[in-house]
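Private note to self, pasted from the team thread so I don't lose it. Backbone tokens:
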């Protein structure tokens, strides 16, 4: 038997930023490659960002991505900067568990010849997110914006290169690979909507295939706050290594997690790499109880909206949380309203429909909000053209506010100026404020709502600080397993070795399980011989 080694490159002792290299039997796979928001927010904010002209240098120096050789894109390395870390051998694939940015957001720093392996839904969401986002270094994960090193006044800089955009190969591990998915992966709104396509950078999609030819990987759908989430089982000569990604047991798709546990537990896993976001939390911000289930969110929202007849209703839920969007569509349908979504949500739904025909599309009961804007991005032009019969203007909402539920986030609240409601209701169905910046956002949100005579639900204020009681939490369910559910998952899978990641409380796992399993607490940059 050969050695099985683990090299954590990110995601230890913190929530998010998962980057783990698994080496076994002459093969290597990366387990996620996401943004470490804790580290990013320590040094940067909206108007202080890593320099684009520095390529990957700022990200490496400030500890946002690992200092390793032979893993990152050569065209992002300035001539006067050298990577000095360990040299990584050929990587067979990067396994993306789901499309949250703390798991896939740094994909664009990886070499272009490393395929992305994931579910069909995750592939569609990653593509839609890149299409509808601003171009930034490292965020071009599925099709790379080519860059080159040049010199300006004696200093090496990285600049965009006018060339074709090479696509990353895709290995679909769960879901189908049909012409609909291939068509969306190959779609370029910039080309489709351009006056002169010959002046545009042309994406050159990579190959799309079912499975990975070089390694034995099984993908299991799991329940999380984004669709398409999967756990992975990687076959090695020592036994199966399980990576959970993010998962839970209290969502509307909890049966998927239970089926994963049932299938992955036999033969006994050699190692379990498990998320622990809520490890150590009991009766604090996210209680372990039925009160935080998605079903409870649905029931609570239905009851609330039933008392809002004739008034404007705004529902705020997290980006890419399509399950929550579907909940509020059901609420809208039941109360004779129509759900109104943003162009970005519409583009995402269209993308996901290419991978899963059960995903709803814009229609008579699911409208796209068309607020005043100077110019539209090409992807916005494309989606508005495709669904032009299902677009709604601010004046229509203003004239009949009781006929709609608006899916607006904090950054959409500016549209209240156009809507100018006599009164209304704002339902916060998303996560709490976890830092000072988010608390400031909530205070600013409250000022907007007060100005337009809108009552809010899902949070309150005490001493000018947002608070979230159990009553308010009935409108939001965590995307992560509770402490009790983590114990259940670990004991059901019954691994030989247990490795917690994506957690601020790794010691919790040692306290709970050291008498039953070999508990290994990983550290970033330190190789583990399993």
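Design output:
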């Amino acid at each position: 038997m050969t050695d099985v080694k683990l090299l954590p490159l990110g995601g230890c002792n913190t929530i998010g930023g998962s980057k783990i290299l698994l080496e076994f039997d002459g093969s290597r796979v990366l387990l996620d490659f996401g943004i470490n928001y804790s580290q990013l927010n320590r040094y940067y904010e909206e108007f202080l960002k890593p320099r684009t002209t520095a390529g990957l240098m700022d990200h490496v120096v400030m500890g946002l991505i690992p200092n390793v050789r032979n893993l990152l894109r050569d065209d992002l390395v300035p001539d006067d900067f050298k990577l000095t870390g360990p040299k990584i051998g050929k990587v067979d694939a990067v396994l993306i568990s789901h499309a949250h940015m703390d798991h896939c957001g740094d994909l664009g720093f990886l070499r272009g010849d490393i395929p992305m392996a994931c579910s069909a839904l995750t592939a569609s969401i990653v593509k839609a997110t890149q299409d509808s986002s601003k171009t930034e270094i490292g965020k071009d994960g599925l099709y790379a914006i080519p860059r080159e090193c040049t010199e300006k006044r004696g200093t090496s800089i990285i600049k965009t290169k006018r060339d074709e955009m090479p696509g990353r190969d895709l290995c679909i591990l769960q879901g189908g690979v049909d012409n609909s998915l291939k068509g969306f992966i190959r779609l370029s709104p910039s080309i489709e909507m351009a006056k002169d396509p010959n002046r545009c950078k042309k994406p050159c999609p990579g190959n799309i295939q079912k499975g990975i030819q070089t390694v034995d990987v099984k993908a299991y759908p799991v329940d999380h706050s984004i669709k398409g989430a999967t756990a992975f089982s990687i076959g090695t000569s020592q036994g199966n290594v399980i990576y959970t990604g993010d998962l839970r047991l209290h969502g509307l798709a909890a049966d998927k997690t239970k089926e994963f546990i049932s299938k992955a537990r036999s033969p006994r896993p050699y190692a379990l790499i498990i998320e622990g976001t809520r490890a150590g939390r009991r009766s604090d911000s996210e209680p372990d109880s039925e009160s935080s289930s998605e079903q409870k969110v649905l029931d609570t929202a239905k009851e609330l909206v039933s008392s809002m007849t004739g008034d404007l209703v705004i529902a705020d839920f997290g980006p890419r949380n399509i399950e929550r969007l579907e909940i509020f569509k059901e609420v809208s349908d039941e109360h004779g309203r129509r759900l109104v979504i943003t162009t970005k949500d519409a583009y995402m739904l269209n993308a996901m429909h290419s991978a899963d025909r059960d995903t709803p599309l814009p229609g008579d009961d699911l409208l796209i909000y068309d607020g005043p804007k100077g110019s539209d991005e090409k992807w916005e032009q494309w989606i508005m053209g495709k669904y032009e019969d299902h677009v709604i203007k601010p004046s229509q909402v203003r004239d009949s506010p009781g006929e709609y539920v608006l899916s607006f986030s904090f950054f959409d609240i500016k549209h209240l100026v156009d809507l100018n409601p006599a009164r209304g209701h704002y339902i916060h169905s998303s996560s709490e404020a976890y830092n000072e910046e988010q608390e400031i956002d909530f205070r600013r949100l409250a000022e907007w709502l007060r100005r337009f005579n809108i009552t809010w639900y899902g949070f309150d204020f005490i001493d000018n600080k947002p608070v979230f009681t159990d009553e308010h939490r009935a409108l939001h369910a965590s995307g992560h397993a509770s402490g009790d559910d983590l114990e259940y998952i670990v004991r059901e899978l019954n691994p030989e070795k247990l490795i917690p990641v994506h957690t601020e409380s790794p010691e919790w796992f040692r306290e709970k399980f050291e008498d039953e399993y070999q508990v290994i607490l990983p550290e970033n940059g330190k190789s583990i011989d399993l």
